Structure formats: structure tokens, C-alpha cells
Structure prediction request, 261 residues.
Amino acid sequence: MKLKAVLSVISVLVLAWLILPTLILVPISFSETASFNFPAEGFSLRWYENFFTDPSWMSSLFLSLQVGLLATVIATVAGTVAAFGLSKMRVRGRAMFEGYLLTPMMIPGIVLAVGLYSVFLQFGLLGTLGGFVLAHTVLALPFVIVNVLTSLEGFDSRLELAAASLGASKTRTFFTVVLPLIAPGVGAGALFAFVTSFDEVIVSLFIQSPGLQTLPVKVFRSVTQDTDPTVAAVSVIVTVFSILVVSLAQLRFVNRKRLNA
Prediction:
């Protein structure tokens, strides 16, 4: 009983350590003064208004959403197909192929950023929408593969044989039998892919241009160049948005699990 109490206290302390820095941004985002002083002075919505009325902030937000959605769609489709193909491999080279596909998740971001910069420079992809989507897809792909592979490990392959015995083609079997059963893994992979793309800053710093900056890059440059509390307002908005997305995804997963029970 004492051990359980100690572990509970430690868990609360760790949670507070992780959350408190984020919570401090909330009062700062409502400050009247153009500083990051804490506690904040006064109450004002001017920094939220500045975010929604400043064309440069809105442009960065829409670019991040556009790149995130496109990268998520491409990474989800490609990652699902790749994971399904890996699950069917029965050769020694499977581990090598799997490790190769998961490389962007394991190597340092700065190394990947320099590599992508060199390649994109040769093909004229720096500072382009296509370059952003391609780079973010590379980063998001491993998360889709890992989640889909996890779902496929619990998939009963005899269901495919049963569908084939009833005359279903491989394509129809995949879309009507396999995909619905691994949908939670695909959904989780898509969610991680979008979050990874939306939050990416290191690679985006290398491939951005003055007229094409994602929201994390805009936040990074704003923090390093001035003391505009608009950054705090942006952080609060993004945090609330992330919590809502994760909560809705978790709620849908719980409801799906109850229906299948």
C-alpha cells in the first residue's frame, strides 16, 4: 500500500513537471504587456487578435494544415501498403527492409535535415509546397508503418484464406476483410503522422523560404527575434487543438471497442 502511494506521488510530480511549463504560457498569452513576464500584468486578448488578424501568422497556419493533411494522406496510404507487404514477407531480408523504412524515426533530425536539404537543392524543391509535403511524408511514414504492423500482428490470416475460398480477389479481401480489422492501427498511424508533420521544425527550417514558412518555423523565428507574446497565444491554441484531436480520437476508439465487444 505504501509503495502504491509513493508511486502515485511520483507520478503526480512527474506530470506536474511536464505540464506546468505549458500552463505558465496561458496567463502570459492574456497579458497586456509585450513581454514574457510571469505573473502576467493585466488581462487582454490582443495577442489572440493579433494571431488571427496577422496575414503572416495565418499564412503559416494554413500552410502547416495543408502540408500536414497532404503528408498524412500520402504517408497513411504508403505506410499501410508497406506494412502489409512487410507482414507477408517470409525472407531473411525482412528485418533489413523494415529497419530501412524506419530509419527516419531513428536518426537525428538535424542529420535528416541536412540530407534532405542537399537532395532538394539539386531538384529545386527548397521553399516549395511539394518539398514540404515530401519531407514531412518521409518523417511521418515510420509512425504509420509501426502502428499498422502492430495491428497486423494480431490479425488472423485465416480470414484471408476464408475470403479467397469464397471467390474474393486479393484486392477485395484487403479492402473488405483486412482493412476494417486493422483500421484502429491505420487511424493511430494517421494521427501520429499529422502530429509529426504539424509539429516539425528542424527539417522545415532547412527547406523553408521567406515566403513559405510553417507555423513551427514562424514560432521559432518569433521567439529568437523578438518578445512578442503572440507566440504564447499560438502555443495555447495549438495545445488546445492537440488535446481536442487526441481526445476525439480516443473517444472514437473507446466507442468502437464497445461496439465490437
User: Anything to note?
Assistant: The radius of gyration is 22 Å. The chain has a mean pLDDT of 82. Residues 57-226 form a domain with the MetI-like fold fold (CATH 1.10.3720.10).
